[in-house]
Every structure is written in structure tokens, then in C-alpha cells.
């Protein structure tokens, strides 16, 4: 895919800035969303430019957005943290003393902190994106065994939203958050939403998250959605459904989407992306999809902690 073909002139200064920054702290210009092509919500995304932020329980990973909380510190640090929690709150003396007893008891305090952390996580809306449109497993798992589609987002078109996208870190263990350490407490919450099992690392996932907007539609700049890639096995019915949405999108005065086609390599375990209805040259024999370098994997934000 040609970047120059996809990027409008007005965005080139932003593109240049992001591209230069990749040499220091890699950041993608494009991110992708794999879909079956038959979702009810697809109309809201393609035609009306809305992202649906999910609750963590809506994801297929039951461990999503989980962490372990601990309270490691001195008795004085516990007292200071307790005062921070009740400061400015109208609490009766009896209730305050009951809470103090709970908080100063290590086991009860840990359970209370864990419960509070879980309640906060339940209020966070999450939206997942992938870094590459060439992942065989992503096409298989999230795009109906290559019969679906993959939507292409150009991040510089809506930096107010997409600058908040961060790469997921893959680990063998839950992130641990020390609730008595202010710095760890603030950064630990972020780690909880951006850490998944090593078994998911093939997703090369980036995430957006919004407090208090779970299971909510959030508008994005229409120009940020620039293309749709039809899977190698995409059915004519799915192509027609998507093209109908693209036509409706154009009637609203929004930029037409580029249409691409994923093509299976004749020699390697990989797919190539080509202009829809044009396809590859006769000389093309592809390359392994696993050979592509991941921006997320190179990012300092994504290194194991």
C-alpha cells in the first residue's frame, strides 16, 4: 500500500512529525480493526464514524484488565494513605473508625483495595486495534476465517482520540500494583489495562480507553477511517454489504474509502494487500507474514517490565 496515495496533503506535516518520532519512540501511522463484515454495529463505524468502547467482560479473554493489588509499606504509610482516602469526605466518626480498622488489617485492606480496583476497571471503556493487516491468526480469529474485512485507520487525522492509543504488553503474570505507593498506584492502573498473557502477543494490539464510557459509542473524525481490506475468502455478499455502506458514507459528504484485497501467497504462509479488483502482478509470490517488524514490539512502552 502506498502511503503517499492514502495521505491527503493537509496531513503531511503531522505524518512527517509522527514518522520522525518513530526513530526515538516508535508509533504507528496506521492501525487496523478486524471484523467479520456482518456485525450490526459495522454501519455505525463505516457510515457514521463511531467507535464502540466495550466493557472488559465483553472481550474473549476472561483475564482482560486484571491486576493484583498489594499494600506494601510501613504502618505510617498506611495511616497516610487512609487519611488521603477519607479527606474531604463526610463520614461519621463511627464509620471512619470502622474503615480505619479494615484498612489497617493487611488481609482486609488488600481485599478492599482489590474490590475498589475491580470497580474502577468496570468503568473503563476499551477499544482494541491491531498493528498489522497481514496477521494470519487475526484474519482467522477475528475476521471469520479470512471471510471478513479489516478496516484501516490513519491516526494523524484524529490525534485528539488516537494519540491515546498505547501498545499492549504481554506477560506471564498479572501486573502488581502497590496501593501505598502513589507513583505505582497511578501507573499501575494503566498497566492493568495494557497487560495480557503472552499467548495473545500475536495480536500486536494497541488500545484506547476512556473512563466512564464503557459500552458507549464515541465519534471520531471521519477522515481517520481511510480504507477497507476484504479478506482472501471474503464473500461477494460481504463485499456488497460493505460497498453499500461506503456509498452511504459518501452521500454524507465523507471521503470515499480505499478498497483493498488480501491475497494468499502462492509460496509462503502469508498474505499480500493489493488494490481491490486489480490484485498482484504475475511475478508476485509473497513473503511470510511473520517477517514483518512490529512497531509495538520496538516501542519502549511495550518492553517487558
Label this structure with key terms:
305 residues, three-stranded antiparallel sheet, 22% strand, alpha/beta, five-stranded mixed sheet, 11 helices, disordered N terminus
Description:
Mean pLDDT is 83; it is low at 1-11 and 17-24. The two termini are 34 Å apart. The chain has helices at residues 3-6, 12-21, 42-46, 75-86, 93-104, 106-121, 136-142, 159-162, 182-193, 236-251, 295-298, and strands spanning 30-35, 50-53, 68-70, 124-130, 149-154, 166-167, 169-171, 176-178, 195-197, 205-211, 216-219, 225-230, 258-264, 271-275. A 5-stranded mixed β-sheet has the order 1-5-12-13-14, covered by helices on one side. Strands 4-10-6 form a 3-stranded antiparallel β-sheet, with no helix packed on it. It has a two-stranded antiparallel sheet with strand order 2-11. The longest helix is centred in the middle third of the chain and has 16 residues, at 106-121. The protein is built from 11 helices and 14 strands.
SSE layout and pairing:
Elements: H1 3-6, H2 12-21, E1 30-35, H3 42-46, E2 50-53, E3 68-70, H4 75-86, H5 93-104, H6 106-121, E4 124-130, H7 136-142, E5 149-154, H8 159-162, E6 166-167, E7 169-171, E8 176-178, H9 182-193, E9 195-197, E10 205-211, E11 216-219, E12 225-230, H10 236-251, E13 258-264, E14 271-275, H11 295-298
Helix pairs in contact: 4-5
Amino acid at each position: 500500500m502506498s502511503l503517499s496515495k492514502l495521505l491527503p496533503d493537509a496531513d503531511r506535516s503531522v505524518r512527517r512529525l509522527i514518522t520522525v518520532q518513530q526513530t526515538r519512540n516508535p508509533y504507528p501511522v496506521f492501525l487496523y480493526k478486524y471484523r467479520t463484515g456482518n456485525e450490526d454495529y459495522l454501519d455505525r463505524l463505516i457510515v457514521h464514524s463511531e467507535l464502540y468502547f466495550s466493557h472488559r467482560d465483553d472481550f474473549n479473554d476472561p483475564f482482560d484488565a486484571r491486576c493484583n493489588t498489594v499494600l506494601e509499606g510501613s504502618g505510617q504509610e498506611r495511616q497516610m494513605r487512609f487519611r488521603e482516602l477519607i479527606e474531604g469526605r463526610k463520614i461519621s466518626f463511627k464509620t471512619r473508625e470502622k474503615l480505619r480498622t479494615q484498612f489497617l488489617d493487611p488481609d482486609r485492606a488488600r481485599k478492599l483495595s482489590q474490590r475498589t480496583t475491580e470497580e474502577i476497571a468496570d468503568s473503563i471503556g476499551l477499544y482494541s486495534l491491531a498493528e498489522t493487516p497481514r496477521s494470519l491468526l487475526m484474519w482467522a480469529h477475528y475476521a471469520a476465517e479470512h471471510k471478513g474485512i479489516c478496516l484501516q485507520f490513519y491516526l494523524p487525522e484524529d490525534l485528539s482520540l488516537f494519540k491515546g492509543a498505547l501498545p499492549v504488553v504481554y506477560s506471564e503474570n498479572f501486573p502488581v500494583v502497590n496501593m501505598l505507593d502513589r507513583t505505582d498506584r497511578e501507573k499501575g492502573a494503566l498497566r492493568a489495562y495494557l497487560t495480557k498473557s503472552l499467548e495473545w502477543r500475536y495480536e500486536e494490539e494497541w488500545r484506547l480507553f476512556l473512563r466512564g464510557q464503557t459500552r458507549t459509542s464515541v465519534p471520531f473524525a471521519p477522515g481517520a477511517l481511510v480504507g477497507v481490506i476484504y479478506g482472501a475468502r471474503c464473500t461477494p455478499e460481504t463485499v456488497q454489504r460493505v460497498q453499500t455502506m461506503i456509498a452511504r458514507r459518501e452521500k454524507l459528504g465523507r471521503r470515499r474509502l480505499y478498497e483493498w484485497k488480501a491475497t494468499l501467497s502462492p509460496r509462503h504462509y502469508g498474505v499480500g494487500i493489493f488494490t481491490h479488483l486489480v490484485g498482484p502482478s504475475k511475478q508476485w509470490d509473497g513473503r511470510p507474514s511473520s517477517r514483518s517488524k512490529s512497531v509495538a514490539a520496538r516501542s519502549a512502552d511495550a518492553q517487558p517490565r
